[in-house]
UniProtKB/TrEMBL annotation:
Protein name: Methionyl-tRNA formyltransferase
Coiled coil: none
Domain Formyl transferase C-terminal: 198-298
Matches recorded under HAMAP family: Formyl_trans
Molecular function as annotated in GO: methionyl-tRNA formyltransferase activity
Encoding gene (name): fmt
EC number: 2.1.2.9
C-alpha cells in the first residue's frame, strides 16, 4: 500500500527480491495541473509495469474494500506513505501483520509531513522506522530503524529521495527476521511523541523577524513543495534557495526585519530578526523560478525595500 514516489523504491525492492506481490493498494487517480488531467499515482504506474492487480478504494474502511483485500489472501501488508489509516478489520487480515515504512525516527515526527518538519527544525539527523501498524496514527511497536544524516545542502526534496531508498533497503533487511518470527518489537514511548501534521499555508509565509538560520531552514524544508514565500509589492514572492547564514554576521542595527540590505547577482541580502539572509533563488508571481543574477537583471528590487508587507 503506497501512493507517492516515496513508496516506489520499496515496491521495486520487494519485486527485485522475488517476493510475491499479490496486489497493490493506492489512492484513486486525481486531476493534476491546470488542465486537471486525471493522473495515476506513481505506485500505480510502477505496479502496472509488472502486471500487478491495483486496488484504488476511495475509503479503505468500506466493507467492499475490505472484502477485495481479503480476496487477495495477503500474508503481509506493507505500507509506505499510503495516505489512509487502516481499520482493525484490515490490520487483522494478514498472518504476519501490517507494517509501515515511516520517514522519521519514531516516536518523533508522527504524522503526514515528517521530512518537512525535520528539515524545517534544523535537525542534523532523521531516518526511517519500520513498525507494526496500529489503529492510531503511527503509534505501533517499532521493528527496525536506520538513521540518515541531514546535510546543509539537503532540502526536503533530497531527503525524500534518500529516505525512500533507505526505507526500501531497511525493508529488505527486516523481512527475513519478521517472516521467521524473530522480531522483538519495541513499544513507542508516548511521552516522547512529536507530531508532524501536513504543512499549512501559514507555515509557508516567511516571518522576517525570525532568526536568519530559522528562515534558512524553513526555505530548505519547503523545497520543492509547497515553497516558502514572502510578499513584494502586494504579490507572492517565492523563495526557493538561500545561503546558510554566517553566525558572526548580525543584522544591520535598527533596520526593520525584511529590509533588503544589498542587491547583487550573487544574492539578495535581507535583514532578519537575528542575522542577514542571502537569498539565491526566487520566483516572482506569474514567472518561473530564477537565480539571483537573473532576478537582479530585472532591476525592480532595490536596497531599502521592505519585504513581507
Amino acid at each position: 500500500m503506497g501512493t507517492p514516489d516515496f513508496a516506489v523504491p520499496s515496491l521495486q525492492a520487494l519485486l527485485d527480491s522475488g517476493r510475491n506481490v499479490v496486489g497493490v493498494v493506492t489512492q484513486p487517480d486525481r486531476p493534476v495541473g491546470r488542465k486537471r488531467i486525471l493522473t495515476p499515482t506513481p505506485v500505480k504506474v510502477e505496479a502496472e509495469k509488472h502486471g500487478i492487480p491495483v486496488l484504488q478504494p476511495e475509503r479503505l474502511r468500506r466493507p467492499e474494500s475490505v472484502e477485495a483485500l481479503k480476496a487477495l489472501q495477503p500474508d503481509l501488508i506493507v505500507t509506505a506513505a499510503y495516505g489512509q489509516i487502516l481499520s482493525k478489520a484490515v490490520l487483522e487480515l494478514p498472518q504476519h501483520g501490517c507494517i509501515n515504512i515511516h520517514a522519521s525516527l519514531l516516536p518523533k515526527y508522527r504524522g503526514g509531513a515528517p521530512i518537512h518538519h525535520a528539515v524545517m527544525n534544523g535537525d542534523a539527523v532523521t531516518g526511517v522506522t519500520i513498525m507494526y501498524m496500529a489503529e492510531g496514527l503511527d503509534t505501533g511497536d517499532m521493528i527496525s530503524r536506520v538513521e540518515v544524516p541531514i546535510t546543509d545542502e539537503d532540502t526536503t526534496g533530497t531527503m525524500f529521495d534518500k529516505l525512500s531508498l533507505a526505507g526500501a533497503q531497511l525493508l529488505l533487511d527486516t523481512l527475513p527476521d519478521l517472516i521467521a518470527g524473530r522480531i522483538q518489537a519495541v513499544p513507542q514511548v508516548e511521552e516522547d511523541a512529536v507530531y508532524s501534521p501536513n504543512i499549512t499555508r501559514e507555515q509557508e509565509l516567511i516571518d522576517w523577524s525570525s532568526p536568519a538560520l530559522a528562515i534558512w531552514n524553513q526555505i530548505r524544508g519547503l523545497n520543492p513543495r509547497p515553497g516558502a514565500y514572502t510578499l513584494w509589492n502586494g504579490d507572492v514572492l517565492k523563495i526557493w534557495g538561500a545561503g546558510k547564514p554566517d553566525k558572526a554576521e548580525s543584522s544591520v542595527s535598527g533596520m526593520e526585519p525584511g529590509t533588503v540590505v544589498q542587491v547583487s547577482d550573487k544574492g539578495i541580502r535581507i535583514a532578519t530578526g537575528a542575522g542577514i539572509l542571502t537569498v539565491t533563488e526566487l520566483q516572482p508571481a506569474g514567472k518561473k523560478a530564477m537565480d539571483a543574477a537573473q532576478f537582479v537583471r530585472g532591476g525592480q528590487l532595490e536596497a531599502g525595500t521592505v519585504l513581507g508587507r
